[in-house]
Amino acid sequence: MDSRQHLFYGLGLIAYAVADIDGKVQRSESETLHRIMKEGIAKIDADYDLADIIFQVMQHDKIDFETAYKWGMDAFKTGEQYLTPGMKWNFLDILQEVADAFPTASNQEGELIARFARDLRSLGN
Fold first, then answer.
1. How many structural domains comprise the chain?
2. Are 25 and 68 in contact (CB under 8 A)?
3. pTM, whole model, 2 decimals?
4. Domain coverage including residue 48
């Protein structure tokens, strides 16, 4: 995986953290998340498969949201030289859409996205 692909790896991890923060990721949430990520990432790049694969691995291995978040931010730091302001906005939009996909969106999801936005500001261009 090259440094740029780490951004999409990180996005898959952070998306998992958002989906998992309020408990187990339900099948319908997983399917919706895949659609949202595929559509959102298609606007930026073709590396959807990488983010999707990472999400699947995290779900299978039952990684907690805090660990997924930390790993995701580590991946973003690895690829930060390729991170543009436009990508940052697109990634935040994707995560917000993940959180909004279900009527049971929690304050925890919003807080995690706000944390990601703060962390993202210090990275890249």
1. 1
2. no
3. 0.76
4. 5-121
